[in-house]
Please model this.
Amino acid sequence: MFIYLDKQSLLHRLHPVTKIVGLLLLFIWSMIFNHPLYLSIIFVMVLFLSILAKSLSNLEKFSLLLIILALFSTLLWSFFLRGPTRLFKLGFIQISKESLLYGMAMGIRIDTMIVSGIIFLSTTRTEDFTQGLSSLGLPFPVSFALSLSFRLVPTFQATTSTIIQAQKSRGLDLESGQLLKRIRKYIPLFVPILIHAIRNTDLLAMALESKGFGFRKRRTYYLQFRSTWKDWLSIAILAGLISFSFYLRRNGCGVIFHRI
Amino acid sequence: MKAIEVNDLNFAYKGGAKKALDGIKFEQEQGEMVVLMGHTGAGKSTFSRCLNRLIPHFHKGDYSGQIRILENSITGKRVHDLVGQIGLVFQDFESQLFSTNVELEVAFGPENLCLPREEIRERIDEALEMVRLKGFERRESASLSGGEKQRLAIASILAIRPKIVILDEPTTDLDPQGKLEIFSVAKLLRSEGYTILFIEHEAEAVWEADKIVIMDRGKVVTEGKPYDILKDVQLLENHGIRPPQIAKLFEEINEPMLPLTIEETLKVFKKRDWKISDEKYAALLEKDEQHQIGYGKKIIEVKDLEYIYPGNIKALDSISMEIREGEFLAIIGQNGSGKTTLVKHFNGLLKPSKGEVKVAGEDTKGKQVWELGKIVGYVFQNPDHQIFADTVEDEVAFGPRNLGIPKEKISHYVEQALEEVGLEGYERCDPFSLTKGERQRVAIASTLAARPRILILDEPTTGLDYREQKSIMELLENLNRKGHTIIIITHSLWVVAEYAKRVLVLHRGRILLDDQTRKVFSQEEKLARSFLVLPEIIRLSNRMGRTLLSLDEFKYCLKR
Model:
């Protein structure tokens, strides 16, 4: 399963640095408010972005995860926080209007961040990511390793699922038993996975070295990126929105709890 | 000019007890194709890694000796100093590829060499042209077939324009079609003037080499022209290489003249008036029928099975078949034809999207994998995907313990399973210290110990040398004789011909053929359409109007 979608869109064409900075700005933006209404506005804008990025199909794949996370966060925060306006009480469980709203806000915040991440991965190849990190000043081997880790997730997933099936075929039953017993049951999975990972990394390192990886400090790139006015405009718009949001927040808008 | 010159090369891995390379002497002229053969563990890969300095820089150990590449000593050089001269392609294509798409994979090497963009563009074109992957530039490497992936790995090396290309068992993990693709790329490279060092198991594929070198226990045992090496059946068998069948036939009937091709062989037969005896062939057919009568009751029944993977990919379509107790069935077909998907239905790892699968009379729907595990044992392709315990004994006892077999019985079952696979005395050994062939046996024993009636094995012979392959198959034959139903998935058609009694050919998720081995293998053209090329001896007999599955059968029926 690869998240990257090989399409042509405004976001695909942006400079990787713009996309990395943009992603960080989106994270910051979603941290400013803790009111569900304000966060919803941000969420809707991020959704609009994913339409621009032609990556809705990827959001669909993750939709179940997004819904579950939002629900869980809403429930958990509502139980654990106490607010002045009580809505409901049963034994030691009590929910207030404020804690419910805060919970919803946290759910929307997590989803906003994940959706931003999915948009980023849908429009950015690992090679773009590597180059972006390099142009931000990271040494090439470091940026390469960082982006490679994303690339290796699917390969790793595939092996893990093979190993699970192999052990299930030998009668391993992961579903039943008490917690402690169940943890022990994972040993037959961890050992082969670990060994596979070590072996794989070893081979990959050899293949890289045989292709001149780390040969010189400098290297050229086959992909060429030039920043255009669109890059500057995108960052400017995001920065503007964030500044405005900070202004609102300082004036007391979009806040349920001031401090937890 | 000499491309490679090696003198008295010695190497022992750090912590390794034995020398991996022991006084190697080796020479290769520029433009030559040399094939390196020998047992698994003979030191072939180790040798190839010395040539581009991965040894001693990446793998540490005791190293001594002189190597000259293109007439320059490489002593003291680093791996990247040799990048433009030697390119190394590894067996495991999955872990060599890491880029998003085909062209970026090929661009990686030239980028590291700081080449300008236009030049990289040219080199991508040239390299992809060479491995016939033009038009694949934007494809994700994950979406390629095995053969295509390995060709991509080769292209990514060619883009660096090395003078010497080393191919380290590039075909081991490929299906027959993929293998043919790699051989034809190797041929093309040679005609383009590359110097090629090809590490390969299959003797029949290396007739075109300039020289064959055989290694054993870290030494070069012998070298010579393909014709001289390949007709020496004894030599080949001693070094874990399956001899070409026609060569073996002529040796066994004490006929010194050796024809190389099937055409030539037919000419020899005609000249001497050698024929296949009708009575003896009839006796073989009679034996086939007898065998079939001996099967027990239906143990697996598949009806109108359809399986759809997430993302609406139809992997199996209208499959109906039955397997009786005591059968030895081989499932063949290209990668992606649905072989593994089908057998995963037999132990409940997958459940039908449509249709039904019954095991021992019961529908697999609603059954857990471990419940079916009492009847169906499944040995996965790579033993390293399941071995985890500290001792062989614990590893083998894992299955029976999971199935809740009482303790007193387990040790007995384990003992018997180890005996059946020929690993008695290994109980206290660390499974990770064993060879691949032995680990494969541990995996089989660990499945056997649960005493399943059906044994499924996915590619049981991949990555093993001829001697190991034969001994695994003899083990399965033995288990079959004792009453186990055996189902194997394999690409190795000589294995099918010599051991399986029935063959199921899958093609794009459908059954293409399903019959006795002899009847399936008589339909050579139909199989060829699925890129399944039969072993020499069967093709030879088919040309003579009969289907003989093994050398023994051929000798038995040959009227001289």
Summary: Chain B touches chain A through 66 residues (CB under 8 Å). The domain at 2-235 of chain B is CATH 3.40.50.300 (Rossmann fold). Chain B has 23 helices and 22 strands. Residues 176-191 of chain B form the longest helix (16 residues).
